[in-house]
Amino acid sequence: DAGVTQSPTHLIKTRGQQVTLRCSPKSGHDTVSWYQQALGQGPQFIFQYYEEEERQRGNFPDRFSGHQFPNYSSELNVNALLLGDSALYLCASSLNMGVGNQPQHFGDGTRLSIL
Amino acid sequence: AQKVTQAQTEISVVEKEDVTLDCVYETRDTTYYLFWYKQPPSGELVFLIRRNSFDEQNEISGRYSWNFQKSTSSFNFTITASQVVDSAVYFCALSEASNTGTASKLTFGTGTRLQVTL
């Protein structure tokens, strides 16, 4: 039973560049959320995708955008990278069961470094 | 707005000691969920427990136990007879109840780093 997988594991970019991070949800899950975790901090919610639409969004600028594909996998895109975007980006998946608030299962993350 | 406070930045214990990690939360919602996650050095957040606001019964799972007290807005986590493998960063998180079926966003605390030594 495959868990949440993210790629790449590490990435180094320079200021102003653009980056795309990828996530495959846990088998059977249909909802993907993205979080940014700065060093020494707790994860911060970026946005969530369900049925290929953005359903919730945290306090992040429009430079952060995403997409969900019919197979439930997801991408996180960040444009015009800033030094402050250096962080661990975590993908979490869950299953929409119609009621309740199901636990989110996380991947190992992509560590993004901006030079 | 929701907020989670984990006042203990770092705790060091010797193996076999018991340790309690504190979590205090703030929310205006009457229905909400509380979570604990473990983050080992690999980075993956490992789900440990989910508790809804209507269930104040304490829970025990092996060496782990959780004490939910609505009156003090706390959801503390105790590890009994700690082991070296328990060394990790532990996060407490809060989410509002979902009315759509999708998991609501998690608001995390800043985490408590637990170091268990021999």
| Separate helix tally of chain A | 0
Average pLDDT of chain A, rounded to a whole number, is 93
Shape of chain B: globular
Main pleated-sheet profile of chain B: 6 strands, mixed
Order of helices and strands of chain A: EEEEEEEEEEE
Uncertain segments of chain B are: none
Most extensive contact: A-B, 33 and 29 residues
Q: Round the Cα radius of gyration of chain B to an integer and report it.
A: 14 Å
| Average residue pLDDT of chain B | 92
- Give the distance, in angstroms, between the N- and C-terminal Cα atoms of chain A: 37 Å
Strand content of chain B: over 45%
H-E order of chain B:
EEEEEEEEEEEE
Number of helices of chain B: 0
* Gross morphology of chain A: globular
What is the total tally of β strands of chain A? 11
Instruction: Please give the alpha-carbon distance between the first and last residues of chain B.
Output: 41 Å
Helix content of chain A: under 10%
Radius of gyration of chain A equals 14 Å
Percent range for β-strand residues of chain A: over 45%
Provide a quick synopsis of the model:
The complex is a heterodimer of chains A (115) and B (118). Chain A has strands spanning 5-7, 10-13, 19-24, 31-37, 44-50, 53-57, 64-68, 74-78, 87-94, 105-106, 110-114.
Q: What would you note in describing this structure?
A:
The complex is a heterodimer of chains A (115) and B (118). Chain A is mainly β and 115 residues long. Chain A is built from no helices and 11 strands. In chain A, strands 2, 4, 5, 6, 9, 10 and 11 form a 7-stranded mixed β-sheet that branches. Chain A has a 4-stranded antiparallel β-sheet with strand order 1-3-8-7, with no helix packed on it. In chain A, β7 and β8 form a beta hairpin. The N and C termini of chain A lie far apart (37 Å). In chain A, 39% of the residues are buried. In chain B, 0% of the residues lie in helices and 52% in strands. The termini of chain B are far apart. Chain B is mainly β. The chains are: A mainly beta (115), B mainly beta (118). The interface between A and B is medium-sized, with 33 and 29 residues.
